[in-house]
Structure formats: C-alpha cells, structure tokens
Amino acid sequence: MDGYLKLALQSVTNPREVAALLLSIRPNREALLTAFALVVVLNTLVFSGSVLLAPGTVPAFLTNPVAFLAMQAVVLAGSILGFTGVGRIMGGRGRLEEVALLMIWMQGLRVLVQLALLVLTPLSPGLSGMATMAATAIGVWILINFLDEVHELGNLLKAVAVMILGVLAMAIALSLLLAFAGVTPEGMTDYV
C-alpha cells in the first residue's frame, strides 16, 4: 500500500515519469483485463458507498450498482479506444495496451480520490466540493501528460487535442450505441 500511495503522489508531481515507469512494466493482456475489472469493481463499490451515505444525490439509474458497474466499464473501455484511435490519427505511437494501462492506473487514482471524498464530505461539504474541483484539474493534468508520453507526441498542446477529441469520439460513439439500443433521454423506447 505504501508503494501505491507513493506512486499516486508521484503521479501528481511527475506524471511523465510515472507513465514511463508504468509503460516499462509491459503487462500481458490477462493482467490488463484483471486490472481493468478490479478498478471498475473498486470504483463501483466506493461509489455505492457514497450513494448509501448521501441518497438522492445521484440520478436513480446510477443507484443500481450493476448499472453503474456496466456504465463504468463501457466509459473506461470507450476512453481507452478513443484516446488510442485519436492519438494514432494525430501521429502518436501508443498501442491499445499501453493506453489501457495508463487509463487503468488513472482509475486506480480515482478510487483514492473517491475514498478521500467519502471521508471528507460528511465533515465539510464545502471543502469536499473544492477538493473535487482540485482533483478534477489534477486528473486532467495527469491525463494530458500520460497521453503525451504514451503517444510520444512531444507537445502538450497535441496531447490536449488528443484528450478533447478522444472524449468527443467516445461521447459520439456511446450516444450512437445507446440510440441503437433504444435508450433515449426519456427512457427506453418500445421495441418493434
């Protein structure tokens, strides 16, 4: 746990070095899939705990842990695909497995943030809100550096473009998938 926390702190202070370290590990596909499942389950457990402590603060469909778990898995997989595809289009060299490793690590960091907020929110909702904004900004900073490192872009502005276009690509793809599945803002449509 001590090594995990030190690497988490180093992810904030020197994200490029952490990205290089993680990429040097080169885990096999089975390890990546296991880590993917682990961070999705941990995020779901922590989120479900926060829903139990503050019911009514999230949309009703997210209160179902299975629905949240599925949504979390789809969003993480979509972001991995989006950041890989857009990065490659913009001249990056990152492979799917490499991008997946870094995104899985970021989800592990998210578990730490959620646990901290779980403790902080009952003590001071205002401070919790400020911590959430700070964590979001730090997360974006880490993501930009990770994308620059994995794709070897050599330019943080290109990495910002990869991030923005990757999120847009993921959002469009997910919207299309949900529309084909019959999910609308009003709910499920009748199947004909």
Short synopsis of the structure:
This protein is mostly helical and 192 residues long.
Overview of the molecule:
Helices cover 80% and strands 2% of the residues. The chain has 192 residues and is mainly α. Strands 1-2 form a two-stranded antiparallel sheet. β1 (183-184) and β2 form a beta hairpin. α3 packs parallel to α5 (96-123). It starts with a helix and ends with a strand. Residues 188-192 have low confidence and may be disordered.
Keywords:
single chain; about 190 residues; mainly alpha; two-stranded antiparallel ribbon; 2 strands; globular
How much of the sequence lies in strands comes to under 5%
Count the E strands.
2
Spatial order of the strands forming the largest sheet:
1-2
Our measurement of the CA-to-CA distance between the termini, rounded to an integer number of angstroms, reads 52 Å
Which stretches are poorly predicted, pLDDT < 50 over at least 5 residues? 188-192
Helix content: over 70%
Basic shape: globular
Helical run tally: 7
**Quaternary structure:** single chain
Q: What is the H/E string?
A: HHHHHHHEE
Chain-averaged pLDDT: 87
- What profile does the largest beta sheet have? 2 strands, antiparallel
Radius of gyration (Å): 17 Å
Going by helix content, strand content and strand pairing, the class is mainly alpha
SSE diagram, text form:
Blueprint: H1 2-13, H2 15-25, H3 29-53, H4 65-89, H5 96-123, H6 125-151, H7 156-180, E1 183-184, E2 187-188
Antiparallel strand pairs: 1-2
